[in-house]
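Possible regression after last week's pipeline update?

I re-ran a chain I had predicted before the update to compare outputs. Posting the input and the new output here so someone can diff against the archived version. Not blocking, just want to make sure nothing changed silently.
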Amino acid sequence: MTNRFDKICIGFAQKIPTAFKTTFTPGNAMPDTYLLTKEIIADFVNAALLKLFNQTWQAVKGDTKAFIQIFPELSRLSDTVVATLTNGTLYYNVIAPYMDFNKLIGAVTSDNKFIKIWDETKFTIALSGIYDQYTTTSNKPAIIGLNRALYLFPQNIVAPGFKFQYIALPLDPTTGDDLIQNGSYDSPFTDQWNAQIADMAYDLYLEESQETT
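New output (post-update):
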């Protein structure tokens, strides 16, 4: 069920304004409106979800703590995953069901040891292993996120199982695609953001309407 997503769709349709061809109750399949199809409505709402995420990320200048203070609901914790040694490098490549992954913000080993997060600019320094201030051990591991790959240090760590905490994008975590109305995953934003997201969807609709006239 996608109750929050559906409420945003209704709010967006009311702003146009247009009515649904049949009664639409959040949590059920959405009908077309007299002006826009259900697919187009969902496209605008998905675009608005990402716009809210990106605008806020830019506003806090990538400060993860500030971002999570605004959207605590976008903090996710994975199940235990296992890093593998590939071409001499130990890492875990983020895959389903974490395809909504955006930014690494925490990690812990499978036996509950804290894993220190290092900035991605330290990757080659950590990989070289020659600087004392970047020395790691199995009891004091570190992790670096590069795109969708999470690299564990030391590279010879015996038990590479770990959980990671991350900031999630408003996407389907199993595919990384846009959310689907009446699908398995709802808008990740809490209800307090529904009206603002509907406003953003309407703004995007107006912008596109002006471009096509």
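Follow-up from reviewer: compared with the archived run. The longest helix spans residues 38-59. Marking as no regression found.
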